[in-house]
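ok so heres the complex, two chains, lmk if somethin looks off
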Amino acid sequence: MTFDQWMRASLDRVETALEHYLPGTDVAPTKLHEAMRYAVLGGKRVRPLLCHAAGELTGAGSQQLEAASAALEMIHVYSLVHDDMPAMDNDDLRRGKPTVHVQYDEATALLVGDALQSQAFVALTADNGLSAAQQASLTRELALASGSVGMAGGQAIDLESVGRKLTRPELETMHRKKTGALLCAAVRMGALCGEEPDAAAMSALDAYAAAVGLAFQVVDDILDVTADSATLGKTAGKDAKDDKPTYVSIIGLDASHELVAQLGRDAHAALAPFGPRAGWLGELADLVVNLVH
Amino acid sequence: MTFDQWMRASLDRVETALEHYLPGTDVAPTKLHEAMRYAVLGGKRVRPLLCHAAGELTGAGSQQLEAASAALEMIHVYSLVHDDMPAMDNDDLRRGKPTVHVQYDEATALLVGDALQSQAFVALTADNGLSAAQQASLTRELALASGSVGMAGGQAIDLESVGRKLTRPELETMHRKKTGALLCAAVRMGALCGEEPDAAAMSALDAYAAAVGLAFQVVDDILDVTADSATLGKTAGKDAKDDKPTYVSIIGLDASHELVAQLGRDAHAALAPFGPRAGWLGELADLVVNLVH
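and the predicted structre for the whole thing:
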């Protein structure tokens, strides 16, 4: 199987899983369920892909990976819906469509995010092929990664840092929480869907995810200044306009490019112990790096 | 032990559990963790008390009930914080204090709610004495009760019904989701913290919780027109001002009082099969009924 074939097959499974785990638009309250599906539509499905690729290392089954992937994507989308709201980043374009509070209203956006978060944990604890022990451990991974010491905490630091000059370590801490924690959970959860990996394997996966997560953020910062809104599917140039600290503003464009390349090499180094089974994880790291090359 | 002694002991355990399961204010991001604790402070702890009382029926241990109670209260508080925001009910007083978005700001309120929801699932899957099977089943109960087919769904229906004339069955459906689902989960989760109850016991508990949950809502509607803001700790007369459908507006004050009394009798009838072990659950039903007698 080529990487492209694997990607297409995995993406198909993720869409099927989201379709399965999101409440139907015929279920009351129908407007809320429509809006939840509107929010989830589109997107690159980076977290589900990382989850599926990591599952290859531990022989995880499709059904198990689908539940974990759907849960990860629901958490990611809830965070986008809330972050886009006027009280936060106040953005009106996401994945090439009007954001949820623009398409519907602010109250609906608030509830869509809230309900997507709950639904993620419903998916993890459904009749999904995972053992009770796996359901409990995946719930814990996802809850910690998305909560106040993870993603929500990173967003809090982000809001406090607007207009302030961050040092590079401060910027890295923010991103490690805001986007890194959930990307790391995606890799860990994928691996935990199969035979439980040992501590050394988990820590190698953490190192891989940390490198890819940071690369992903630096790429995002680069594209914000080099790409246009149509390409991004969201408003370009917004970081500078909002006076947000970014890698480009702190270390410059050239050094940001060099950093992305270095992080790609770090990701591959972390995967070395796994040999060829880690092939898709390596390809996904390259995919991120190549977005700016 | 008298009911008052049991209440005091249970409430002490709930405060200890919340203290234990909420991240410390010395943990980064400190402002977010402070705001989470500010939001959780105060409150009658109705859901934790129902959880503890139901645990008596199945020999549930304290440690297990504390984790479940803390999770329930965090979900309840997250819903209050989000419901109070300007995009929803726009209220500035809660539990006798300024609401979170007034005391801090809207972005913080949004993140406090989001992070409290995650933290509830962290508490359920911590090293808390619950087996993996119990952690998974409690996670599922709580996620379903708080999501789009439960609490968040009820809030969506509530928002759509402002200014519209609801029938009594429509009003009941809304409340069954908006407040009933989480109260029902509180009772079920308490029971599930011990020896797993059989289907007949669970369905008796559901009937009890449905009666208490509805009584609780009718009482709330009555107090909104008969009590003042200082007594309530939140803005009185707000339902009428917002043109919200309530039991008082649909069936009148006298019939609302009679309904509360009937629901109290229904709650006791549902508990009959359990005998004296259900004593605290019966007393809690009386407590709700007596708020308006």
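quick notes: Chain B touches chain A through 56 residues (CB under 8 Å). thats all i got rn
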